[in-house]
Amino acid sequence: MTTTMRRAPALPSPRGPISEAVLSVLRGNRTGPPDVGGSPPYGEDLQLALYCCYELHYRGFGEVDTEREWDPALLTIRAGLERVFLGALREDVPPGSDVEGELDALLVEHVDAPGVSRYLSRDGEPWQLREYVAHRSLYHLKEADPQTFVIPRLDGPCKAALVTVQHDEYGAGDPERAHARLFADMMTELGLSEAYGAYLDSAPAETLAEVNFMSLCGLHRGLRAMLIGQFATVELTSSPGSDRMVKAMRRLGCGPAAIRFYAEHVEADAVHEQLLRREVIAPLLTAEPALAPDIVFGIRSSVFLAARSEERLLRHWNRGESSLRDGVEAGRP
Amino acid sequence: MAEARRRVIVTGEGPILVYGPVDVEMPDGTRVRSDRAVTALCACGRSRRRPFCDTSHRRRVRDKER
Fold first, then answer.
1. Is residue A322 part of a domain?
2. Mean pLDDT within A177-196
3. Which residue from A minimizes the CA distance to B20?
4. Which of A162, A216, B27, B40 is most buried, most CB within 10 Å of its CB?
């Protein structure tokens, strides 16, 4: 069941000229930098290109030389894509500096707000639940990894507390309990492929943008406070959503692995929420109060990108259509 | 001896945080363990996963009136 390192995933299909150029560089060709200026910042082409650039810092791709990770040509392209992506977020997400107010707002449960977990817990069908899990696999099969990049960029109490959270995410010494492993077990139980990267071609730009935002903030020391804001958003909002997913899984008769993944997140994230607020953010702000606007921006950007993903899923499902790019892959019966 | 003392945080808003693994005895005698580095024990009485916190203490609002 557990192996140390699985086969690296295959390269995805291009979605336009930018991703085409990035894939070409990844294959070892000396391709000139693509023009990124006119490309929609949250579009399929740009988000896939960025995702592929970042993937080199995680598991890479089977056909790609590991040297590409620090290839100046590729890093130049990546920097251009990041400017467009972050620039768009700066325009779409209003600035703020009241971290406490922002966190308090996240802690209020809006019981009649629309959302994917509410939809799945009440009306979702098995194929929709499988689609949701396929979307989420882009992050959860590397769960906690983007946030681990921030560790050396922190110091003192907030670093120690963040590592405590990550230790829990990685199974507290037991690889079978690592959240990414629990997610993979759930995928297998639901009849999905647990292979890393299996749903990259299926994942739309909205799904990729959420993961790209984590990688962007994790890999830039200057954006470390945004990463903390992003992490806090996930940990603060996860417990109630996971509880609804447990309901959805039970209602649809899913097996123990599926229920276990979300049940674990109800309990774990109730703890992580407390640690993030009290032991990570509070000491970080005491040490560096100037980081407050970046924490708020990280929170608001995460909420903004998550809302775009949820809208896409619900929009397609309400029409009875697949929310994945290639339709039925996640297995309509 | 002092070093062996567990750190416990009474959050006031919801759970009690206990540092280190815990072995909790429930009113009916059953025992529940948590091996987490920190465990959040429900103190508001509303959790459906007692003894653990499930964030049920949070404020709930309705956005649409009626």
1. yes
2. 96
3. A164
4. B40
